[in-house]
Write a structure and sequence with these properties.
2 helices; single chain; 2 strands; mainly alpha
Length: about 100
Amino acid sequence: MSEDNKNKQDKKKHKKNKKSGLKIFLLVLVIVIIIGIGATAGIVIAIAKEAPEIDPTNISALLNQTSFILDQNGNVIEKNTFDDEIKYNNVSFCYNPGHYV
């Protein structure tokens, strides 16, 4: 009888050890996730503080982009610069296929 009680007590201790091990693992995982989130937030804030100021009224001057269209030999055929303001044209849509409705 006493051996059965010892076995039951050993099984209970073993279950408690498994549960406490799982709790420790989950606690460490939560701590690592919180530290990771804090580190990521710190890096993002540091980068945002070092970023230059942007004037939204003159954004096109900051976006100095040039495209080159080349032929098969690498010679420039056309150079497109986007320094000017972007101009939009209103285009009427006259074709309406039935499957879009």
